[in-house]
Specification:
Blueprint lengths: L1 E3 L2 H5 L6 E6 L5 H16 L6 E5 L9 H6 L4 H11 L3 E3 L3 H4 L21 H4 L3 H16 L1 E7 L3 H13 L8 E5 L19 H18 L4 H14 L3 E9 L14 E9 L2 E9 L2
Parallel strand pairs: 1-4, 2-3, 2-5, 3-4, 5-6
Antiparallel strand pairs: 7-8, 8-9
Helix pairs in contact: 7-8, 9-10
Length: about 280
């Protein structure tokens, strides 16, 4: 496996495209599942395309400088994990490669799901503009044919799907594949932010996955939302949202709505913000 830092060197490896796993590093078992799924996809489709992982901590998607500054950088262990999972190369560009000085990198037209649900778009203003900007740029740099994303960031996954389908500025439109959330044995969703949890806060954080489980047995949207909010608040978490929405648009259901929902939570445990979600059958 190769570690590549410049775009010129990297593009010699991907002249015919690649199967792409974009990350910001601080890789964990959830990322490993993405990389292994990329390798399996290549085998299933009898493709000769290389599996490429990028590691780039994108400054344009952080709302707070302090959050960007403390984001974990663990390149040595990240590279080792990528090799163990079967990646062919790790692309580690610096900021001047992704955003060349004196070059304006366009932000693709944001799809409706990035601006209207009032979920991550409301609590993290500008976040999806930064996500779409960097993902579109990386697609171009790595010549992605297929790109894999984790479903833990469900709204982000839907935003990228919609961007690829509809944004007129995109020159490359890879197939977007979602990979289910990987959880620890006690149910906590894998996240790079988990390293910041104290033992006491980690115990409190289990209320998130348990709240989602509670919602599965609710017979109405309002009951599911109340159940989630009550458990989270009782555990001492600060709830930003605990909702059930249409799984595709992430808008509130009209009436009873179709039974194709997604229960979504964002909550703060101490100073750490965590998100999670699950399919909600209604």
């Amino acid at each position: 496996m190769r570690l590549v830092r410049t775009t010129r060197e990297f593009q010699g490896l991907v002249s015919h495209g690649c199967i792409f796993v974009p990350t910001m590093g601080a890789l964990h078992v959830g990322h490993a599942a993405l990389i292994r799924e990329a390798v399996l996809l290549r085998a299933r489709e009898r493709s000769s395309l290389p599996v490429i992982v990028s590691i780039f901590v994108n400054p344009t998607q952080f709302n707070e400088e302090s959050d960007l500054a403390r984001y974990p950088r663990t390149l040595e262990s990240d590279s080792r994990l990528c090799g163990e999972c079967g990646a062919d190369a790790v692309y580690v560009p610096d900021e001047s490669e992704v955003y060349p000085p004196e070059t304006r990198i366009l932000v693709p037209t944001l799809p409706y799901v990035a601006t209207s649900p009032r979920l991550e778009d409301a609590t993290r203003p500008g976040h999806f503009a930064g996500v779409c900007q960097v993902v579109a740029r990386l697609f171009e740099l790595v010549r992605a044919h297929v790109a894999l994303f984790g479903e833990k960031d469900w709204q982000q996954f839907k935003v990228i799907e919609a961007m690829v389908a509809s944004s007129p500025e995109l020159r490359l439109r890879p197939r977007v594949v979602g990979v289910p959330t990987v959880r620890e044995a006690d149910g906590l969703a894998m996240s790079s932010r988990n390293v910041f949890l104290t033992p006491a806060d980690r115990s409190k954080a289990l209320a998130i996955s348990r709240s989602l489980h509670d919602a599965l047995s609710a017979k109405s949207v309002s009951t599911a939302e109340q159940s989630m909010s009550d458990r989270l608040s009782h555990a001492g978490l600060h709830v930003e949202y605990a909702v059930v929405r249409d799984a595709q648009t992430l808008l509130p259901f009209i009436g009873n709505g179709p039974h194709n929902g997604r229960a979504l939570i964002a909550a703060r445990v101490g100073s750490v913000r965590l998100i999670d979600n699950t399919a909600w059958p209604g």
